Amino acid sequence: MRVYAGQSHEEREEARRTRLVDAAVQLFGVRGFDETTVREICARSSVSTRDFYRLFTDKEDLLIAIFELSYTRHLQALSRGLAAVPPDADVLTRIAAAGVATAEDLADHPLLARVAFEQSTGISRTVEASRDRMRAEAVEMTLHMTRDLVDNGLITAENHRSAAMAVVGAFEQLKRDWVKNPIPPQEFATRLITILSRLLGSD
């Protein structure tokens, strides 16, 4: 393995990619996707345009990477929130923990949230296909969670997938609302409970 300045080729490539993503989040989040050029992103991240096009097909490909990063962070926040409650916690307690963790993550990365849930909408079919893929992953994670709830006798086994899709949809709507009007984590959780408690209670 070739090493330069203490880093392997793969580590240097990953560092460049991270800098490009971080720079694009700042520029897209403040100026917008259409108003930002690849050259500006490269200048801000100290990455050459040649390296940019080796790592990303185009600016849209970079936007997809940002959107996928946001969804990954969202799933990680959900996992942290749910891991903090006892295994036998009731449904509302779990929803509240997930909501608080999600809102805290949004507050920690407001520009990332703006790009993912405002700036990335309506760009292209390719971007929307990526959104659909990440949404499907979130639904599968939620399905796993609801199966655990069934195993613990907290909800019944009916209509799992519809409930999971509703949960993911509720989170997405609240995150879009948060971008326009940030609210404290506890209020975010309360709104989430209001939306979902009737649905989960009816399962």
Automatic annotation (TrEMBL):
InterPro entries: Homeodomain-like_sf, HTH-type_TetR-like_transc_reg, HTH_TetR. Residues 37-56 bind DNA. Pfam families: TetR_N. Residues 14-74 form the HTH tetR-type domain. Signal peptide: none annotated. GO terms for molecular function: DNA-binding transcription factor activity; transcription cis-regulatory region binding. Keywords: DNA-binding. SUPFAM superfamilies: Homeodomain-like. The keyword DNA-binding applies. The keyword Cell wall biogenesis/degradation does not apply. PANTHER family: HTH-TYPE TRANSCRIPTIONAL REGULATOR PKSA, HTH-TYPE TRANSCRIPTIONAL REGULATOR RUTR. This is Helix-turn-helix transcriptional regulator. It comes from Actinomadura barringtoniae.
